[in-house]
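Example (one chain per record):
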Amino acid sequence: MARQIKRLEHALYAWEDYWFCLNATSKLQRATGQRLGMNIVPHIGPVKHFMELRKHLLKIRSAEQFDFEKFLLPTEVSQTLSTNWPRLMSHFPAEMALWICESRRVFRITRELQVLLGATLLGDIRWCDMHWPFDAFVVMLDIPIKSSFDCEYDCILVSRYCMPDDPEGVIAFRLFSTALDDQQRVISPIKQRRISGLIQEKKWQEASALLANHRLPRLPVDPFFVKANEQSKVVESMAEISCGYKLSDVEAPQWDIAAQLVVGLCLYMNTLPPKSSHKSDWNPALKSLGRPNPNSVTDAAQICTISSTFKLRKEDSELIGINGTTRAFHEICAHFRRGHWRRRPGQGQDPNAPRAVWVRPTLVRRDRLQDGAIVGGSENIVS
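Predicted structure:
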C-alpha cells in the first residue's frame, strides 16, 4: 500500500518536468525571438524557480512560509498558455506544502469500510458537521475509483488552504491514478541536462529540436476544488462541481465518489472511541518504501489503517457493489437500504447537533428472500 504514497512523488516529478519544458521554451523564445509554436512564456514564477521547489518544501516549517510568488503562476498568465497543465497542477505545490507541514498523515481505508461508506448517503450533512483530522491528509483506497474515462484512482490528497487572494479558502481534492506507477518521466534528467547545455552553448536550433521531440502526456491526476460554506450541504457543493457531467446514478463521477468517501471517513472516525482497535497506530511509510531518499517529500509519511466496526457479509458486499454505487432498488419484500448519518437520540430537532450516528447500509427483511433469489432491482449475469 505504501507505493501509493509514491504517486505524489511521481506527480511532483511531472510538475518539475513540465516547468523545465516551459523554462527552456522561455529561454529559447527570448534568445531567438520566435514563439516556437507557443504563446510567449514569461520567465517568472515556477518557470524560473521550478528547480527550487523540493528544497523549499523540505525546508519550510509552516504552510504560511510557502512562497506563492515563486511557485504559482498568476492566473492571467497561465490562461495564456496553450495547455491545461497549469489548470490541473498549478495549486499542487501549495497542497503538498500544507500536507508536509501540517501532518504527513495517510489514512488507509479497508475494502469493507470503503464499500460501506460508498453506500451511505450524505443527505443533509453540512460541512460544519465534519471534524477534519488535519488540514491536509491523504486517503488510500483498497478499491480504486473508476472514472468514465477508464482511469482508476486509489490515492486522494485532501487539503484545506487559503490562497493569497482568497482568504476564505477552498477544499481541494486531488485524485491520483494507478497509471502513475507506469508513467515515465516526461523528459529524463539526462535529456534535461543535454537541452540546458545546448542553450548555454547558444545552440538554439539543436535545443529547440530536442525539446520539440517531447510532448506532454495526459497527466493521470484529477483535481477539483470545493468552495465550501460551513452551513452549505456537501451534496449541494458537489452538485455545483459535477453539474457538467451527464451520467447515470450507476456511473457517478469520480469526484462525487471521492468526496463521499472522504466525508464519510471523517464522520466515521469521529464515532470511534479512543484507542479503538479499528484505528491502527501510525506506522512510518519508509518501512515499506525502502532506503530513504534525501530529496523525497513522502519518505516521512505516517500511515494509519481504518477498518469497519461492522462485519459485512459476502453477499451484502456483492450486492452493494465495488464502488458502493447501488442500483435502483425497489422496496418489495426484501430490499436494500442505503446508509445515512443522523443525530444522536434526543437531538433530532437540534439543527446544531452533529450527525454522529452512522446508520449502516443493509438488506431489509432478509428472511423474506427465498433461497437462490436476488433482491429486486439488482443485476444478475446469466450465462
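Caption: Residues 124 and 193 are 55 Å apart (CA to CA).
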